[in-house]
Amino acid sequence: MLHETGMVIDITVINGEKTAIVECISKSACKSCSSNDNCGVGVVAKGLSDKSHKLSIPFKEGMEINHSIELLIENKDIVKSSLIVYIIPLFLFVFTCVLSNLFITSEPFVILTSLASLIAGSLIAKVVSSKLYPINSLNKLISTK
Question: Domain span at residue 109?
Fold first, then answer.
């Protein structure tokens, strides 16, 4: 199970439902390694600032502004969403590339149709993932700290 800690920075009403705006800070793993002074990647990681991500999640009782919450994501959900996000666009890209290469002799046109199918696959993956994981299903992933 993946655990991520975030800070509730705002509670608003969006589309008639209470929503919490949560800020999560991504830290580089290289900053905590014992060899980070001798490693080129560690030196670069020291120069980069931590990334801040803001998420809108459904409000759950116990949430307060400036309090920490813990987001929990099951391993099966990570694998399922990764498969959706990567496999659908990749499959469409390869399928279109092979199919268009069989019937079309113009290489630039094969490249354009393949890229178009990659974009279409990404849009399809977005629709499929929003159907499988609607925003209200996130409530079971959140626990207050």
Answer: 75-137
Q: Domain check: are 46 and 65 in the same one?
A: yes
12, 63: one domain = yes
Inside any domain, residue 85: yes
Could you tell me if 69 and 88 lie in one domain?
no
Count CB neighbours of 94 within 10 A. Answer: 14
The torsion angle over the Cα atoms of residues 41, 43, 47 and 50, rounded to 10 degrees, is: 50
pTM: 0.57
Q: 7: buried, middle or exposed (CB in 10 Å: 19+, 13-18, 0-12)?
A: middle
One-letter amino acid at 93 equals: F
pLDDT digits (tens, 9 = 90+) for 104-133: 888 899 889 999 999 999 999 989 888 877
DSSP states of 54-117 as a string?
EEEEE--TT--TT-EEEEEE-HHHHHHHHHHHHHHHHHHHHHHHHHHHHH---HHHHHHHHHHH
